[in-house]
Amino acid sequence: xxxxxxxxxxVLFVSACSxxxxxxxxxxxxxxxxxxxxxxxxxxxxxxxxNYAESWKTAASYFQSAxxxxxxxxxxxxxxxxLGALVSRKxxxxxxxxxxxxxxxxxxxxxxxxxxxxxxxxxxETVTPMLAPDGQWKxxxxxxx
Length: 145
Hints:
Layout: H1 2-17, H2 31-48, H3 52-57, H4 61-66, H5 69-79, E1 86-97, E2 108-117, E3 120-131, E4 137-144
Antiparallel strand pairs: 1-2, 2-3, 3-4
């Protein structure tokens, strides 16, 4: 039940914050959004390599307080691994925000990628880095649709 509730919380959090990215053109991102995007891509590389423990350890403290490392690893094994290897990932859009439903006010960037996996040709990954007290962007949410 905890996993289902946590998944719903993360889905609701990310869905409510999803950027409007209907434009087919190349997304324009600010320097802040670019820094958050870079952090998201580095974090995704850990997930792509099935290094789920390290992805949890490098996530925002908010993320770590919402889901235990064991829960995170189990969720990724159940949800991410069946998708197979990464084929391609392209930035769809990035949007800065200071508020997120169910999360403390702060600096967030909702980053979306059009992604293709070996076993799922079309997916949208949403990664939400937040600015940590140490000035680093750290992932506070992740969702695949």
